[in-house]
Structure formats: C-alpha cells, structure tokens
C-alpha cells in the first residue's frame, strides 16, 4: 500500500510539472534594432574637408571625408553620356588611401512594350462604326466673317448688319459703307498728307510721294495746336 501511494504521488507531481510547463507564457524573441544607414548626412567631417560616398570592396556605399583641395573626385571627372561616375575604394601601399573616381556604364531601364490592340471587326463593320461616330460627334463649325469675302471700294469699309431669319443661327449681312472719321471736319483719303498735314501758321508742303490712307482735314481746314480741324480764316483766332 505504501509503495502504491508513493507511486501515485510521483505520477501526480510529474503531471503537475507538465501542466505548469504548458501553461507557462512563451517569451518573445529579442528583436534586433535596425540601425540607420550611415551617409554623408550624418557624418561630420573636420575642417577643410568634405564628405563623399564611395563604393567599398564589399559593394556597399560608405561615407569618406576628403580634403577640399583633393581634385581626384567625380566633380573633376568627365564621363561619357552613357556612363556615370562612382567613387571606388582602392588598395594602396602608403596611407591615406583615398577613393578614386571610376566611369561605369549606366543601367538603362527600358519600358515594357505594349502589344498592339487586336480588332476582330471586319473592314466593312469598321467603316460603318466610324460613320456612326462621325454622326454622333460632328466636327465643330468654324465661324466665317462675311466681310472676308466682300471687297469694298476706296473710301468705304465693310459693316455687318443683323439679319432676321426664320431659323437661327442668322448670319449677319455685309454692307460697304463710307468710312466715318471720328473728328469733325475730317474726311477719308486713300492718299493723304500723313507726314506733312496742313497746320495753322505753316505753308502747305507738297509730299504726295509720302502719303497714307486715313482721316484728314477737309479742303479749307487745317490743324490747330490741339489737333482739331478748324477753318483757315479762324486759324489765328483759335490758336491765340
């Protein structure tokens, strides 16, 4: 009986240990912190030196502090159009071993070629479909100025008048009318004395070879100091 009791106690203690092992929480594995990449942005060089990125022997990019007067860099290296300059680590006998520039071919990334769309429609159906699209979306009508097709005589100009029609849009009607000058006592001349107009207190100069079309003073009128056309007899009075 005593032996049986001790055996039961041993079995119970073993099962309790197994239960405790199962119930015990699992500890998470430690996560290694991700260190930021060391670049020239977080490297402080000493005075009279500058930071450059170079390719180490293991293929990784690392920062390096070079003297400012050091000329053997990519800034002073001219590569071809299809090459790029890279600072590369070298092995030397005496220190310091500065990285040297090296021209390497650029990596050309070509965009994927899109396949042409296949159209299973036959030629006759394509034509009918194009006709339907042209009916649904007609081309815009560019308005035409009716005066562009009318040639008026000298001293007249084309003027558009509103027209009344049954079905809009109603195109205006062109008409040739005499040119009206903006100032009083003026008339339109196709060849007027533009460079030598008649002025008050000055003799008329003949310069027919140098004329231009425009509005000029009528016969018996001349320009005063204000640029108005006044009668010749009143020229002296209006200019006092």
From TrEMBL:
Pfam families reported for this sequence: TIL (PF01826)
Keywords: Protease inhibitor, Serine protease inhibitor, Signal
Protein name: TIL domain-containing protein
Gene behind the chain: Cnig_chr_V.g21809
Signal sequence extent: 1-16
Superkingdom classification of source: Eukaryota
Source organism of this protein record: Caenorhabditis nigoni
Start and end residues of each TIL domain: 181-235
GO molecular-function terms, A-Z: serine-type endopeptidase inhibitor activity
């Amino acid at each position: 009986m005593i032996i049986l009791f001790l055996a039961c106690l041993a079995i119970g203690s073993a099962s309790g240990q197994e239960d405790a092992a199962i119930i015990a929480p699992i500890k998470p594995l430690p996560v290694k912190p991700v260190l930021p990449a060391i670049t020239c942005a977080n490297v402080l060089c000493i005075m009279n030196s500058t930071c450059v990125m170079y390719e180490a022997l293991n293929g990784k990019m690392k920062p390096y502090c070079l003297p400012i007067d050091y000329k053997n860099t990519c800034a002073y290296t001219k590569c071809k159009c299809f090459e790029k300059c890279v600072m590369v680590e070298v092995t030397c006998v005496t220190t310091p071993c500065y990285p040297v520039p090296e021209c390497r071919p650029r990596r050309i990334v070509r965009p994927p070629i899109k396949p042409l769309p296949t159209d299973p429609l036959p030629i006759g159906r394509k034509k009918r479909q194009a006709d339907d699209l042209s009916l649904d979306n007609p081309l815009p009508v560019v308005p035409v100025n009716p005066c562009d097709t009318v040639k008026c005589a000298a001293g007249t100009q084309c003027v558009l008048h509103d027209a009344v029609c049954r079905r809009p849009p109603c195109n205006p009607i062109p008409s040739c009318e005499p040119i009206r000058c903006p100032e009083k006592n003026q008339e339109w001349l196709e060849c007027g004395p533009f460079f030598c107009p008649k002025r008050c207190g000055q003799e008329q100069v003949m310069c027919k070879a140098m004329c231009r079309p425009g509005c000029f003073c009528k016969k018996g009128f001349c320009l005063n100091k204000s640029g108005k056309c006044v009668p010749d007899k009143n020229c002296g009075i209006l200019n006092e």
